[in-house]
Amino acid sequence: MASSSLKFAIVGGGLAGLAAAMKLAEAGHMVDLISVVPVKRSHSVCAQGGINGAVNTKGEGDSPAKHLDDTVYGGDFLANQPPVKRMTDMAPEIIYLFDRMGVPFSRTKEGLMDFRRFGGTLHHRTAFSGASTGQQLLYALDEQVRRWEVEKRVTKYEGWEMLSLVLDDHQVCRGLVAMNLQTLELKSFAADAVIMATGGPGMVFGKSTNSQTCTGSAVAACYLQGARYANGEFIQVHPTSIPGEDKLRLMSESARGEGGRVWVPRDPMDARKPKDIPDADRRYFLEEKYPAYGNLVPRDIATREIFQVCLEGHGVGGENQVYLDLTHIPADTLTEKLGAILEIYEMFVGDDPRYVPMRIFPGVHYSMGGLWVDFEQRTNIPGLFAAGECDYSIHGANRLGANSLLSCVYGGFVAAPSAMEYAKNVERGSSESNGIHAAELARQEAINQSIIKSEGGENQYKLHEELGKVMTDNVTVVRYNDRLQATDDKIRELQDRFSKISINDSNLWATQAIPHARQLKNMFELARVITLGALNRNESRGAHYKPEFPDRDDENFMKTTVAEYSAEAPVLSYEPIDVSLVEPRKRDYSSKKAKA
Amino acid sequence: MTTNGHIEKKRLENPPSTIKFKIQRREKEGAPASWETFAIDYRRNLNVISALMEIRKNPVTVEGRQTTPPVWDMSCLEQVCGICTMVIDGKVRQSCSALIDDLLVASGSDTISLAPMSKFPNVRDLKVDRSKMFDHLKQVKAWVDLDGSYDLGPGPHVTNELAQERYALSRCMTCGCCLEACPQYGDDNYIGPQAIAQAHLFNMHPTGKANMEERLNGLLGDDGIGNCGNAQNCVQVCPMSLPLTKAIYQTNRDITVEAIFGWLKK
Asked: For chain B: N or C, fewer Cβ within 10 A?
């Protein structure tokens, strides 16, 4: 190792983590990359739509300034604007870089990159690669980082899960402790700086559109050790997902765009096949309530209405599902316009949506909140950085489509130089020898042992189901203060019952019981941050909606929620927002455009 | 049954009240394998993953014996990460997209068998270690050799036809189905279709082409492309419908061209 080369640890190998790893390796530094799954299988693969960047190839006069405006407006003026500006300014070069890496972006007939339109903008700003842009971008970075792995600058620890940070006596981050998911071996990773890039916490809600690895557990570990968590209550719920026993799968908004109609039978227990139910016995509740926009009301409104209908017991079969019906459109038209997404439905449900109405329900999709970071992706813990969905910095109260892939790469590209700058100047001290690593390893080993020895008959998977249900019922689309309070009471009851779990796996080799138990314990903490953040925010803004407080309240709540851990309950405070670039205005998609 | 052009999928009539899962168990690599059978209540719209989740909650065999929960890998559950691949009723595929109704209709039985892939080290139960597949990607240098990740403007012009052809190969999720089905693959004797297809993906790219010779060299060793027996099983089982045999054919052709004309460049 060259004397000038520094040592970094990155947790998470999705787009943000790989972007940071590539930058650090390229600068000549050493990286330990820790990931619960082989990095090529990270959740970034699930993104379909595309990546935004105002490249302006269509003669529309698009610009990064317009991209900035769309993003902060779509986010309902809760994001600090300078980092958003930096991201939208950087977006075109990020897209070009992926082009150079060989991502097979869809092209125009001239052989240039093609761009399409996405939600919340009037411009063709979204580069895409078939219907799997996230997969293609992730693979491109995976390939580049593999190159650095061959050069021995990057060492991958795949199948390892981060458990905690190693902090010195001055609360400076000196590395982390991770667990090998096969052997349960614990290992401490010394580092000059640590970058968190672990994605969102969808599993807190039991079922979501997220991958099973998106537990938020590593981020919760940072929070428990003093990292601030911001805007936890802002959870994006997508209106149309396909409910499954195992997860919720996304059904693209384009199904409604092409004329899909949302309805429920007037009698939820109507035993007839959907096509045998006459119009008189159907309730097209969006069309009834919003005659002007019908099924194409904005995403948050559609989500709220579908949710409410089911909560009141009017869902199909009394369950959490409504029909999204395309069967009135000729099958050939549907195949041509929606082929790929209809295949996904058929693959997982078994029905052909061209002939049988789809059953859909809103699904938890994305967390706008996450670790608090400053404009250089630094958390409040010296030596700890964060990037991607696990940081809160870009999307405010609501994220626009195709901005997530961009914010992941942007976050990684800012976190890496920022971490280098920090590491160059940090006092090393004798952190390796003074026992802090050994002490943290012992503390984590004791937690494992306490879980192994725990008795009392509670089942960890059933506790997780209960958590998911209460969070989904009360802390997603429509929020009431009494139910939020009851939810926090329930979470504390679950935490109490968690102390009485019995692990049902006597074989500790590659066991999933202990990792899951540790994740669940951490998920309870994030669940409290999300729930109490929502309870305290008495307004409606973006994805956060309270019927008791239906309006946005800039005077009291145009502020970042900051949660800090204490044993009793998260301590909440509020931080003013930098709105120096775009004057806040009312967000209103009902009329064509209310532009500044 | 056809109505209005709609070919309805064969439905599971009179589903059984319970379904059984015969699962191959192994405590750890090198330990002997055995089989255990579990039963769960039938519900519509189950897939193999949701059945495994149900079994994991309370792992009791049909004989009423408490056992350890089966271990398997899962992540995206949308058939795009590749991790949950296993052998289901004798066929290698992803367990997230294996619907119980379809499996029961196909087998006419009330029992579904689950086994780990056989071509990779079996970590435990249904979990395998596919790290070798990623090593193969290093061997063929499956990447574009960038000068650097700083801002150098857009990449080369590429026709949409070429982009689409490359996209088809770029969807490979390293799941291992092609290797499991390949009669030639095993015991390190053959690199297999996935790595050859990824080499071709970059050999087709205007910039990637520059390193074609290095990539082809990675395919000329003892475990190289010459071991393909043209059984064409790979292309049958690929869940992403990659044109694997075409990629092998074209790579062979590139090797021939390189062998004949390569000396002209020297």
From this structure: C
- Distance from C-alpha of A517 to C-alpha of A500, rounded to nearest angstrom: 12
Other CB atoms within 10 A of residue A331 CB = 17
Number of folded domains in chain A?
2
Find the closest chain B residue to A159 by CA distance: B129
Residues 69-128 of B with CB under 8 A from A: 69, 71, 73-83, 96-97, 99, 101-102, 123-124, 127
End residue of a domain, out of B60, B95, B128: B128
Average pLDDT (A468-494) is 97
Output b/e per residue, A338-367; b: 16+ Cβ within 10 A.
Answer: beebbebbebbbbbbbbbbbbbbbbbbbbb
Average pLDDT over every residue of A109-131: 85
Give me the residue label for tokens 């997902």: A241
User: Which pair of structure tokens corresponds to residue A303?
Assistant: 């989500």
The CATH number of residue B217's host domain is: 1.10.1060.10
pLDDT at B6: 65
Same structural domain for residues B59 and B158?
no
Give the end of a domain, one of A333, A365, A397: A365
Are both B162 and B122 inside the same structural domain?
A: no
Contacts of A64 (CB under 8 A, 6+ apart): A54, A85, A88, A89, A91, A92
Instruction: Give the domain range for residue B80.
Output: 2-128
Nearest CA in chain B to A101: B144
Shared domain for B159 and B122, answered yes or no, is no
| Per-residue pLDDT at B91 exceeds 90 | yes
Q: Flag if B50 and A107 touch (Cβ within 8 Å).
A: no
Tell me what pLDDT residue A1 has.
Answer: 43
**What does the pLDDT look like over A203-247, one tens digit per residue?**
999 999 999 999 999 999 999 999 999 999 999 999 999 988 899
pLDDT at B264: 58
Q: Is the pLDDT of residue B76 over 80?
A: yes
* Entry pTM: 0.95
Contacts of B65 in chain A (CB under 8 A): none
**How many independent structural domains does chain B possess?**
2
CA distance A359 to A326: 11
| Residue span of the structural domain in which A243 resides | 238-365
Q: Indicate whether A352 and A472 sit together in one domain.
A: no
Of B27, B148, B171, the CB nearest to A507: B27
Hey, are the CB atoms on B123 and A510 less than 8 Å from each other? yes
Contact between A115 and A96 under an 8 Å Cβ cutoff? The reply is: no
Angle separating helix axes B193-203 and B131-139, nearest 10 degrees: 40
Q: Which of A311-315, A331-335, B82-86 has the highest mean pLDDT?
A: B82-86
Each residue's pLDDT tens digit, B189-203: 999 999 999 999 999
Q: What are phi and psi of A537, to 5 degrees?
A: -90, 95
Residue B226 to chain A, least CA–CA distance (Å): 25
pLDDT score of B263 more than 80 = no
Q: Are residues A361 and A463 in the same domain?
A: no
What tens digit of pLDDT does each residue of A189-198 get?
Answer: 999 999 999 9
Q: Give the CATH number for residue A351.
A: 3.90.700.10
**How large is the ipTM?**
0.96
CATH number at residue B32: 3.10.20.30
Beta bridge partners of B22: B37, B113
- Are A558 and A449 found together in one domain? yes
Cα(B215)–Cα(B203) distance, rounded to whole angstroms? 8
**Which A positions 441-470 lie with beta carbon below 8 A of chain B?**
459, 461-462
Same domain? For B141 and B103 the reply is no
Average pLDDT for chain A? 93
**pLDDT score at A596:** 36
Residue A443 a catalytic site member: no
| 8-state DSSP, A551 | S
Label residue A388 exposed, middle or buried (CB < 10 Å: 0-12, 13-18, 19+).
buried
